[in-house]
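Narrative summary of target 7.
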Amino acid sequence: MKLGVPEPPRDQNGQPVNVNDWDGPQDPGNPLNWSLLSRIYHVTCPALFGFAVTFGTSVYSPAVFDIMKDFDVSRTAALTGLTVYTLGLGFGPVLSAPISELHGRKIVYLISSPICMLFTLGAGFSKSFASFIVCRFFAGLTGSPALAVGAGSSVDVVAPQHRAVASSFFIMAPFFGPSIGPIVGGFVAQYKSWRWTQWCIIFITLAVYLMSLPMKETYKPIILKRRARKQGIVVPKTATNEIAVIWSILLQNLVKPMRMLLIEPVVLFFSLYTAFAFGILFLLFAAIPYTFQRPPYNFTTSQSGLVFIAVGVGVVLASVTNLFIDKYIYQKIHRRTVAEGKSHVPPEHRLYSSMIGSVGIPIGLFWFAWTADKGYHWAIPVVATIPFAWGNLCLFISTAMFSIDTYGPQHGASAIAANGIVRYTLGAVFPLFTIQMYTNLGIGWATSLLGFLSILMLPIPFVFFKWGPKIRERSFYSPLK
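Modeled conformation, tokenized:
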């Protein structure tokens, strides 16, 4: 052996073996070769974890008045229970990435969810407002790793050409959680107490956790390492400090997304646009009760929660839209590109959904603004939330896939991480000023202000569709020059 060059790993007979790759394209250990049912299961469980943790954001909102009364705090203070939980969702994935890279995906699910349930239990039993806020923050922080690791699990088990279907389903689940939360929370807050909103989070998370226990590891390096160990293959150990490795990855996961946010136009503009739309979605958690629990509607807490059924309809329609565009537009372009001998489809063809959805957002906002302000029949402003929610999710799915295609697997995760930090930060902040804005401007002009801002951002996907190749030529991170 040459000095400084480690010996290759060997099997029990002393023969060199490759532990860094699969044993050919048909290797049964490769998650891409698992049965269809198994792959569906390994996409569904992470999606349900995403649903459970985002359900925890909005199920809280109908209980704000109970929180105010029980802890003797203002409405803005009570809304910080939503804010800190959402901030935890934004920064939790930064902590989970180093663990998943060193120890695999499954261990993140097995460890993070029970800790999240314990903090949620602490929030439900809190006797002081300070302990309640602390527990809510750490519940969001420890529950959110499933959002980031789940995306990786989806990539592990789904081939690139079919990834749009899995991505639509996986992304729909975290958007569906905030749609269902106010429905459940409305009835719980009206007929039980705010503490039951926390119990509901535990019930759902526990059910998903138990369902996920049979999951197998999907992360390639961990599968190969365990296979080698099982076969008695000697893998040379590296003199690395695990804590130092985790710290290095942690810094990279914080610094690199922030750097891309500052120097990459794709990351900056799409993060701002999707974060703004996401912030409006969270703003609705306060705006809808404010609108419908006042004259002329006079809804009860549970009735105002039912308004979010329309938001859920918009989320489902957005997923259907993305699947339709993928099947009838993108896949045709993909087949034509392959037939021409080209290696990849230009990422700009991922933007059709965002260009359509960007129109739905202001339509829904202006529709809601003036029908609710003029006191039209409740069904008319309720239906207005459908095009908004539809456009919101169309925008996010499309731009997320565009970012991944633009930056590839090496840098795409950092682009999505930057998007998540900005998105959940605005989602945390927007509800704090909602009531003041609606009180001072009125329902019509407050919602119209958001509509006008969304019109200013509407050209963003169209600009990148037209000039995307030129913008990518100047990118520091995109491999597609």
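The chain has two domains: 7-237, 257-481.
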